[in-house]
Amino acid sequence: MLESEKLIQIVQTWLGYIRLEELTQAEVERSSDIYSKVVDKGVQLVGNKLLLDSEVFTQFQQQQLAAKRGSKNDVQMAVAFPQIYVIQGKGKEQKLKYLPLFTIDISPIFKGNYRKTGWDLTEYEFQPVVVNLMRLYGLEEEQAESLIVASGIGKFLEDTFKGRFPTLRDFLELVDLPQGNYKTSRQPYLLRCDFTPYNALLKLDLQEIFKELQQPDSKAEWLTETHPAMQYICGQPQLPRDEVIFWGAFPDHAPDEFQASVLKHAQENLLTAVCGPPGTGKTEVFLHLIAQQVVNRALRLIRGEDDANNLILFVGTNNSTIKKFQQRLTKNSPAQQFYLPGGNQTIIRKETLPKLQSTQDWLRQTEFNQSAWEQAKLELLQAESEIQQLIEQDRLNIAQKVTDFERRSQLDVEIQSLNNEIAVTDSELQALTEQLSNLAPYENFPLDAYQQIREELSQAERELPKESDSITKRALNWLNATTDQRIFRRLALRINAAVLNTLATGHPFQTPLDHPSLTAAQASVNQKLDFSQKWQNLHQKVTEIQTQLAALNKELELKKAEHQQIQKQIDSYPQGDFYNLFYRDHHKLQVELFQRAWAFLLQEVLRRKESVMRALSTYGSVLTGDGGALLKLESDSDAIYRDLSLIFPVISSSLQSIRNMLPILQPNSVKLALVDEAGTTLVHQLFPLLVRSQRAVVAGDPQQIEPIVNLCDDTIKQYLKTAFLDRGMGNEDYYRYAPTAKYTATAYHRAAGSSGAEGDLGNGIILSNHYRCTPPIIQFCSPNYPGGLQILSDYTEEATVKHLLAYHVEGSHLNHTNPEEIDAVETAIASLLKHGYSIGSSDNSKTIGVMSPFSQQANALRYRLSNRWRNFSWDDIGTVHTFQGGEKAAIIFSPYQCHQEHSFWFLNRKPNLLNTAVSRAKELFILVGNLRELELAGGETKRLVEHIRRHGEIRS
User: Fold this and answer.
1) Which of 17, 84, 633, 806 has minimal Cβ neighbours within 10 Å of its Cβ?
2) How far apart are CA 80 and CA 97, in angstroms?
3) Can you tell me the distance from the alpha carbon of 52 to that of 433, in angstroms, rounded to the nearest whole number?
4) Residue 420 CB neighbour total at 10 angstroms
5) Any bridge partners for residue 51, and if so which?
6) Cα distance between residue 80 and residue 609, in whole Å
7) DSSP bridge partners of 888
8) For residues 124 and 566, what is the distance between their CA atoms, to the nearest angstrom?
9) CB crowding 297-325: b at 16 or more within 10 Å, else e
10) Whole-number Å distance between alpha carbons of 494 and 585
11) CB contact set of 524 (below 8 Å; sequence gap of 6+)
12) Could you say which DSSP state residue 10 is in?
């Protein structure tokens, strides 16, 4: 975790940057109250010296002392000259707004004694007011960035205004005053720089944080390693886990896999960074997160858990971002009370307070109905139960699936083993069958007959006289008249029946008639009987093996059938991981859960309407500045925000107006902060919101247009030295935490855990599916993102329709504008209007937008086009910065630069500018400029011209 001293230093650097913004504010309103922000009476410039009347000096010195007694920062005073101002409004509404060219910080003089001889202004810090130098003297963006400050105010005046001015008074007398609707006077004036409306509330928050950090052993709730504010400063985002369930979805498109990763990450992490390229559904993610917060609260209540603040705050850097979110939210909002718009005092007066009042009126007129509350609760429980059943079924499926996979694997082994055994057995059977086939003649062998014959032949062989017979045997043979013939005749009689049994077989037997044939017959019979026995043995073996093989095949068949059944069961399970499918396949149930959750919460509002009405009344009084209500909020904020968020779970505000909506810097007063366009948000602007938040989802696109920093390079270098290096911090700290490090230290970079190194975009979850622009347009932007974008836009390609056009215009420069480009833009608009496009359409369906990177060209386009078409809104014509977060059906881009002497560096130094410009167009992007010079310049301008040539059409 970051050391407290380092954190103090970081907040100090942020306050130092706000001081620079205050010194360089473009407009200072001259108020008529006791503490006027502009004073010119009693102020003189003589040579290089500022002379003040003693009364003026005393007035501001007393203000300094009063600020110190009130524990506030010093009053910041500056001097500027000449006087250039505009008058706006009439009568009581009339306002004088001064436009300083530069400011000289004279705050230190009020800490010392009055000097009748005055103060040498060349000894004090000065800052150019870049916006006014561009507006009044036509400085181009590149010139404004390279203004010389480090060499002193004299050198700055000479280089900027192209003259020699020995003293500051000489400059005041000699400088050309701007023409147009400006009032001017060659007199100096003092201005208070600590009342900048843009920064006032943010500054108060950071000052409060700074004072809290300076307290010994501060025990602030947000000073913990896991708090979003501290993770923002020094944390590293964790990767999202897959096995996470979220409850509820907004009635819109189901989240895709990248959006679901964000929703899962936000369930388990207190800070989530989202890289959202154009058209990838950041707003859908925010809406689903809102639905889930509503569902979670409703489920806690029906389970009997303690209720708590559930406030969701959506913030953006500009009104167009908030308006876009508001349109998407209210389009499908479940009830009128769901969303409370907020922001500056005008919005509070015109929208916030009336809605709070109408809601109180509705509560007074609507009675609580117990049965309706019970029914809403029951329906919510039923919706929850349906999803719980799906989760439980998935749990059972997973368990059974594991068993099935194990059994299938076991069967695979057993089947393989059986196949091997069958193969071996079958091989043995084949060998025995072949042997048996060789003995096939003995299949029907007359065995009994041959066995009888063999016995008789043996008997005959014994009876035949032999030389070896004994005398007794010979005597008996003589007495019995035993002769060979007689023995063979008896043999023939004895085997006659057996011989007859062999005649019809393949083995007929021929009765022997003498001794030699007897011997031969005996040998033949014995051989045949041997072969017969072999056949019998082989036949028995074959039969046994055949039986065994049949049993094995039967077992194999059964196991295959079981395997097939298990495979069928496995195939019946939902394909893919449940955690990657539930948000898509069961989106309808998730939406229903959200709708029933809100219906129940509305009934809960009526059940607790007395406390809710008190909370609404107190909060409304807080917004009007009621001191008593503010004290009550301070002492009972948990209960007030709890009841307020019950009926208004969603509040919106710009970052600069958060303190209007949440005037107390109380940690964890926001349940969930949703931050859009963080890539265009300066790093310090988000910090007070994170201190107030329990969880935050920060979305932005670091490849879109960078934040606006109206300081020249010299001023930024001075800021690096005084705010960082002189305090003992290093360059790495500057590139991580400095608002001026707009390419490495935006709010998105910090939320994503970027190291501050050039090109390190941190570890935000990238939304990669693009749904908005036609493919030829977004294909230009796709290479700017890791892995490219998956283009899923609804798009039907037609050969005759071009979505990218480029008109070649040679161009020229006149008063920092390009008249030929302006003429060509006007002609292009006239053509588009004939083809169904429109200007001033409220739904942006076929609306045209016109932009230029350079403010003077953008202003000239506004003047020309609004004079030609009175209903052409100024909001639809401007610089690329003004279109950040917006979209139009058709965008016309005027690059202004057209000469070889132009560096084109402003267009090409980063891909961000053209990436933003092109991606604002949904269906048609038109480039109007000197295509030859844009292509020769290389970089992004060359790539754009080549892309249009390849995927669109070049016209002259």
Assistant:
1) 84
2) 13
3) 127
4) 10
5) 44
6) 56
7) 921
8) 86
9) bbbebbeeeeeebbbbbbbbbbebbbebb
10) 94
11) none
12) H
Residue type, position 189, single letter: Y
What are the tens digits of pLDDT across the range 110-120?
A: 989 999 999 99
Residue 492 has φ and ψ, to the nearest 5°, of -60, -40
What separation in angstroms does the CA of 353 have from each of 27, 107, 612, 623, 815? 29, 39, 15, 8, 47
Give CA angle at 64 (63, 65), nearest 5°.
Answer: 90
Q: What is the DSSP string of 335-376?
A: -GGGEE---SHHHIIIIIHHHHHHHHHHHHH----HHHHHHH
Strand partners, 72: none
The closest alpha carbon to 341, from 623, 609, 592, belongs to 623
User: What's 939's DSSP letter?
Assistant: H
Q: Tally Cβ neighbours within 10 Å of residue 743.
A: 15
| Type of residue found at 933 | E
Of residues 134, 333, 59, 162, the one with CA closest to residue 856: 134
Tokens of 306: 């303690």
Tell me if residue 161 falls in helix, strand or coil. Answer: helix
Are 674 and 291 in contact, with CB atoms under 8 Å apart?
Answer: no
Q: Is there a contact between 651 and 351 (Cβ–Cβ < 8 Å)?
A: no
Secondary structure string (H, E, C) spanning 190-245: EEECCCCHHHHHHHHHHHHHHHHHHCCCCCCCCCCCCCHHHHHHHCCCCCCCCCCC
Q: At 195, is the pLDDT very low, low, confident or very high (cuts 50, 70, 90)? A: low
| Residue 506: how many other CB atoms lie within 10 Å | 12
Angle, CA 181 vertex, CA 178 and CA 185 arms, to 5°: 55
pLDDT digits (tens, 9 = 90+) for 398-428: 889 899 999 999 999 999 999 999 999 999 9
Q: What is the pTM of this model?
A: 0.86
The upper half-sphere exposure of residue 291, i.e. CA atoms within 13 Å in the direction of its Cβ, equals 32
The C-alpha atoms of residue 688 and residue 203 are separated, in whole angstroms, by 10
Buried residues in 676-700 as b, exposed as e (16+ CB within 10 A): bbbbbbbbbbbbbbbbbbbbbbbbb
